[in-house]
Amino acid sequence: MGKKSLSSLDWVSRFLDETPGDEEIGGAPRQVQGACWSKVEPTPIPDPILRLWSTEMADELGVIEGGEEFLGGNKIANGMRPYAQRYGGHQFGNWAGQLGDGRAITLGEVNTGSKILELQLKGSGITPYSRFADGKAVLRSSIREFLCSEAMHHLGIPTTRALSLVSTGEDVVRDIMYDGKPAPEPGAIVCRVAESFIRFGSFQIHTLTGDFDALKKLVDYTVKHHFPHHNVDNDDGLIEWLKQIADDTASMIAHWMRVGFVHGVMNTDNMSIHGLTIDYGPYGWLENFDPGWTPNTTDAERRRYRFGHQAQIGTWNYARLLESIGPLMNEPEKLYDALEFYEVRYQKYSNALWADKLGLEEFNSEDEELVKELISILQSVETDMTIFFRLLSKLKEPNIEELKFAFYDEDKIPIDKWNNWLNKWWFRVNGEPNLEKMKMANPKYVLRNWMAQLAIDAAEKEDYSVAIELYEMLKNPYDEQPNYEEKWFQKRPEWARHRVGCSMLSCSS
Ligand code: AMP
Ligand code: MG
After folding, report:
1. 3-state secondary structure of 438
2. Nearest-atom index, ligand 1, CA of 101
3. Quick check: 13 pLDDT over 90?
4. DSSP classification of residue 199
5. CA of 189 to the centre of ligand 2 (A)
6. CA 218 to chain centroid
7. How many CB atoms neighbour CB 1 within 10 A?
8. Which residues make Cβ contacts (< 8 Å) with residue 242, sequence separation at least 6?
9. What pLDDT, in 10s, does the model give residues 76-123?
10. What residues does 91 pair with on adjacent strands?
11. How far is ligand 1, taken at its centre, from the CA of residue 207, in Å?
12. Angle subtended at Cα 283 by Cα 363 and Cα 480, rounded to the nearest 5 degrees
């Protein structure tokens, strides 16, 4: 099938046509009642320039490169019917009330022939859900979102996607570290793509405002279009549907744990109903293996969303989703089944990921001890997670010598401890770990925080070559790609240890 321009794609509006909306059009931030969306218009920008383009996403949509007038929000094509979604959420454990798309505007849904995908501009100006903010996005956070969401896709991890990044030609003022030093930064807009952007918080807002009619309509809509094999006319059907969401969410979080991804803001408004990684804000990648690490400075004290806590937060968030569906059930006690199911599924995925990372044919109960010990030794001195597991995937004999490059200070390696563990593991796999399996579970290249920062530093000087190089490299994260090795298969450089944007990220974006 030939590719088309953005404006001649087959645009549809299922969400607007089939769920309750806001009477008032557009504008000023306000509390909206009983609606799933508000109609809005993107705010025009002075100088849209297309800077990054995902050819893989474009192929899926069947769209030819270009269309910055639409991707920057300056024009609306026939068939596009822009809106902002209303949702609520628990932020850092507390109910925050109405949140919604404060700086995201959906252009519409595109029927590609095989599926229907929603296209959304992030950073396109004020909506009724913008609360006290400006609805814009800065270049630095947009580059992080574009690169990371595409990298996650190529790692095989469910995620929202990015089609494009357009620079806006206008500055946006941000106080990056919230320390009273606001400064202008270049603005940008990412066009992101997903089957939908419905979140746990999309349901919560109706339940917590007592609007069970809107809740029922949104559930029926979601199931009809996104879970068509489910029937939610009765309690058992609702539980089956919720178990599907449990499964998808557990699988997504296990993938994050496999590759060392820390989401950073696992609020219930950032939990996709499809189990997609969504909302790339102050996320980060583990460099030294530290389960207590979070990149998010806003969470630095409690570290609620630290790496090692993500599965438990998944449980907590999923319980909030279950509660929000309770009013539609005759016997809400049945929701406990679903909650238990999440835990069982997560354990299953977690075991499988360790089996893959360690090249075991399958995970046995005795392997728990082996993994526990590994996690403990990995923390004894500063050890790079990605490099360690990648080198482990090539090991010819159980000797720590071959893994030295993963350590920040080779003199401090606890050699006996390591050789002892390596021998246990070697014995477990009969000297033949499944190396092919390991290489597909232990990526060689991930978007380390300092790598994204180098791309940002260059882009802020209008040089997008680093961003493009990373985008190309991260299309094949499991391949050796020796041409990139010297530059990018590296531990965190010293300059990045304490630099804002590398070791510390705020929600300011
Ligand atoms: P986040 O932490 O990015 O998931 O955002 C939480 C909430 O704040 C969401 O409702 C966002 O739409 C909103 N928000 C974040 N940044 C902005 C902004 N610059 N303008 C308007 N709303 C924003
Ligand atoms: Mg969000």
Report:
1. helix
2. 12
3. yes
4. B
5. 15
6. 23
7. 6
8. 321, 322, 325, 335, 338
9. 999 999 999 999 999 999 999 999 999 999 999 999 999 999 999 999
10. 94
11. 21
12. 60
The residue contributing the CA closest to ligand 1 atom 11 is 102
3-state DSSP assignment of residue 246: helix
Ligand nearest to the CA of 141: 1
Q: Report in angstroms the alpha-carbon separations of 379 from 384, 413, 452, 478, 488.
A: 10, 11, 25, 24, 23
- Report how far ligand 1's centroid is from the alpha carbon of 95 (Å): 15
Amino acid at 183: A
Q: What is the dihedral of CA 472, 174, 494, 307, to 10 degrees?
A: -70
Going by alpha carbons, the residue nearest to atom 18 of ligand 1 is 135
Residue bearing the CA closest to ligand 1, atom 7: 99
Indicate yes or no: pTM above 0.70. yes
Which mutation among 103, 124, 141 tests ligand 1's pocket best, with the greatest number of atoms within 8 A of CB?
103
51 by DSSP, 3-state: which? strand
Cβ pair 242, 123 in contact under 8 A: no
Residue 317 sits at the vertex; the CA angle it makes with 314 and 323, to the nearest 5 degrees, is 135
Closest CA to 161 of 193, 188, 190: 193
In order, the DSSP letters of 416-431 are HHHHHHHHHHHHHTTT
Residue with the smallest CA separation from ligand 1 atom 19 is 135
pLDDT in tens, 37-73: 999 999 999 999 999 999 999 999 999 999 999 999 9
Structure tokens belonging to residue 22? 């806001």
Query: For residue 133, which ligand has an atom nearest its CA?
Result: 1
Q: What is the pLDDT of residues 318-371, one digit of tens each?
A: 999 999 999 999 999 999 999 999 999 999 999 999 999 999 999 999 999 999
Burial of 377 (0-12, 13-18, 19+ CB in 10 A): middle
Per residue in 303-314, pLDDT tens?
999 999 999 999
Q: Which of 43, 131, 148 to mutate to test the pocket of ligand 1 (most atoms within 8 A of CB)?
A: 131
- Atom of ligand 1 at shortest range from CA of 279: 4
Q: How remote is the CA of residue 436 from the centroid of ligand 1, in Å?
A: 42
Distance 166 CA to ligand 2 centre (A): 20
Residues lining ligand 1, judged by CB closer than 6 Å? Answer: 99-103, 129-130, 133-136, 265, 269-270, 279, 281, 507
Task: Please give the positions annotated as active site.
Answer: 269
- Looking at residue 43, what DSSP letter applies? P
For tokens 């968030």, the residue is 317
